[in-house]
Amino acid sequence: MSYAETDDLAKRLGSAALELYDDITAEAALHLEAATAEIDAAIAVKHRLPVTAPAALPLLKALNITLAEELAWGNSGGSDIPESVKRRVENARKLLELFAEGKRLLPDSEPPETAVFITGDNPVFTGKDLAGY
Question: Which residues span the domain enclosing 50?
Answer without folding.
Answer: 6-100
